[in-house]
Design brief:
The complex is a heterodimer of chains A (336) and B (233). Chain A has 336 residues and is an all-alpha fold. Chain A is 68% helix and 0% strand. Chain A is built from 13 helices and no strands. The longest helix of chain B has 31 residues. Among the domains of chain B are: 77 residues, Four Helix Bundle (Hemerythrin (Met), subunit A) (Up-down Bundle), CATH 1.20.120; 39 residues. Classes of the chains: A mainly alpha (336), B mainly alpha (233). Chains A and B meet through helix 2, helix 5 and helix 6 of A and helix 2 and helix 3 of B.
């Protein structure tokens, strides 16, 4: 068995098995995230939400998926066919490949690479291409305007996200995601770096184009933004990509600030629960906040969005970064 | 063996997409091929063991610079036929310059000699297996060559200030700007209320207009039910 696993075919088979073991639960989680979003928002608005298909409407996501599959895919005649299809594919692929480096438990990452954080940052900065390509290839004004907005928004918020991540890295001394989690053994970074935690969470909202920053698809002015021309599975790919991205960003938040697979306290009732369960619980907490924010806040105006990103978050995170560096240096806590 | 194979695959795609950048008809396709070229260059960095550089290449060039390229190119209104004409006219000059550069590179690499200890250094991305890429680069840039690094930063700062000075214009006198602080600090701009269940806005004094008759209690509390059909956008 060991000899087989060490051979090239064995390595390939192992990687495929690991990938499936991660992706299948992930896609089911995406399906049920849509259900959870509808149920939670319904509860917040004193409605019932989906309750017809299956018990408590639990089969609703599958009914929706089936409906999407059976619809006709329409490609506008003026569209650039290859790029029109490439856009949604890119969105979903990027949302999925980022999971390769996420450590679900100690040592449970498909690829535990040295530059894990940079890999995540690189993949999330590519997400804008799916949207820009889709908006341009649709050959429609609404789609193009939505794509331009979204591109500007994602590029702006990446800057402050990068600074927040640098602050965390200062406290860890490594770019490896497992090391980042292990460094939070005594205290989660959400406590000493609380302002950065808040900035990071708001930036992830903007990065995933979620309300209140969903200007890329602001239906009141742009119909559906960059996905206005998409139908059937091409639309479903965008939809899956957006929700997979939400889960990814929640996973990133819990790794950087909420201690990943670590229990809140290393004492009896908490450390009986296995690490992956803690990790999933933390992701679910972040996702609930995503939905909560969507049900609570009105959409930002575009200039306010840019102002928040460049004039408030960027200077604040820069100052906090310098402050953190000073504190670490003066107290001698700087990791070598 | 697999590393060599991967190198040739990535190198071949890199060169092919670089050719496509120059030859493709649609400028947007050119930018997309440029991005493909960046990716393959990042993959070559990975094979060479320079993982930090590979990631930075993707973050900086693909994630930021190429997005701006794509932005501009998508918004330009380009006349393809005129561009074709220009290509034919300038092709000989371009070919001559390219040829000269190629010959120069050939001469340089033909007569290049490595110092005996540099040849082994060249094969390793970092000074030792226990030092990661990030540490090695940090040591070089921020410790060994800190002054040069600071000078480079100052030069970039000057360039940035220059760009701002060139593009900054005075605001027109009649332009109105939003000052969120002033707006929120205005009296009665924001009213916090904790209404009892099933109370109307008029009963709480939030609607200041006097109501002609007392609101019927039944008409309250049904306004917000029909919004937001579901999870779809």
């Amino acid at each position: 068995m060991d000899a087989f696993l060490a051979s090239p075919i064995g390595i390939l088979a192992l990687t495929v098995a690991q990938t499936l073991a991660l992706l299948v639960p992930l896609l089911i989680a995406v399906a049920y995230l849509t259900y959870a979003e509808r149920k939670v928002m319904a509860a917040m608005q004193m409605r019932k939400g989906p309750n017809v298909v299956g018990p408590f409407g639990l089969l609703q996501p599958f009914a929706d998926a089936l409906k999407m599959l059976l619809k006709e895919t329409i490609i506008p005649s003026g569209a650039n066919r290859a790029l029109f299809i490439l856009g949604p594919m890119l969105t979903l692929i990027l949302a999925l490949i980022a999971w390769a480096v996420i450590p679900v438990n100690d040592g449970w990452a498909i690829a535990d690479i040295n530059v894990g954080v940079l890999y995540l940052l690189a993949i999330s900065s590519l997400g804008v291409y799916g949207i820009v390509i889709a908006g341009w290839a649709s050959n429609s004004k609404y789609a193009f305007l939505g794509a331009l907005r979204s591109a500007a928004q994602m590029v702006s918020y990446e800057v402050s996200m990068g600074l927040v991540i640098v602050t965390v890295l200062l406290c860890v001394g490594s770019l490896n995601l497992s090391e980042i989690v292990r460094a939070q053994k005594t205290v989660w970074f959400a406590i000493p770096l609380f302002p950065m935690f808040v900035i990071f969470f708001i930036s992830t909202l903007a990065e995933t184009n979620r309300p209140p920053f969903d200007l890329a698809e602001g239906e009141s002015e742009l119909v559906a933004g960059f996905m206005v021309e998409y139908s059937s599975m091409t639309y479903a790919l965008f939809f899956l990509g957006e929700y997979a991205n939400m889960i990814l960003m929640s996973a990133m938040t819990s790794i950087l600030f909420l201690g990943g697979w670590l229990p809140p306290m290393d004492i009896a009732p908490f450390n009986w629960v296995p690490g992956p369960i803690w990790f999933i619980l933390k992701i679910m907490l972040c996702l609930f906040t995503f939905i909560w924010v969507r049900a609570t806040f009105p959409r930002y105006r575009y200039d306010q969005l840019m102002r928040l990103g460049w004039k408030i978050f960027l200077p604040f995170s820069l100052v906090y970064l310098v402050l953190t560096a000073f504190v670490l240096k003066l107290t001698g806590w700087l990791p070598v | 063996m697999i590393a060599a194979l991967a190198f040739y695959v990535f190198a071949a795609i890199l060169i092919a997409s670089a050719v496509m950048v120059v030859t493709s008809r649609n400028p947007v396709h050119s930018v997309l091929f440029l991005i493909l070229a960046f990716f393959n260059a990042a993959a070559l960095f990975l094979i060479a063991g320079a993982e930090f550089l590979a990631m930075i290449l993707v973050i900086v060039y693909v994630g930021a610079v190429a997005v701006l390229f794509l932005f501009i190119v998508m918004m330009l209104d380009i006349d393809f036929s005129r561009m074709r004409e220009g290509l034919q006219r300038y092709a000989p000059i371009g070919a001559v310059i390219g040829g000269i550069l190629f010959l120069e590179l050939l001469f340089v690499f033909g007569s290049w000699q490595f110092a005996p200890d540099a040849a082994t250094l060249r094969l390793n991305a970092t000074p030792g297996p226990e030092v990661t890429n990030t540490e090695a680069l940090g040591q070089l840039i921020y410790t060994d060559y800190i002054y040069l690094f600071q000078v480079a930063g100052l030069i970039l700062l000057v360039a940035m200030i220059g760009a701002i000075v060139l593009t900054l214009r005075d605001k027109p006198a009649n332009s109105k700007r939003q000052d969120i602080g002033v707006q929120v600090a205005r009296a009665e701009a924001v009213k916090l209320a904790n209404p009892p269940s099933r109370a109307g806005l008029g009963q709480l004094g939030i609607i200041r207009r006097p109501l002609p008759e007392a609101p019927k209690p039944k008409a309250v509390g049904h306004d917000h039910h029909d919004h937001h059909g579901g999870g779809h956008h």
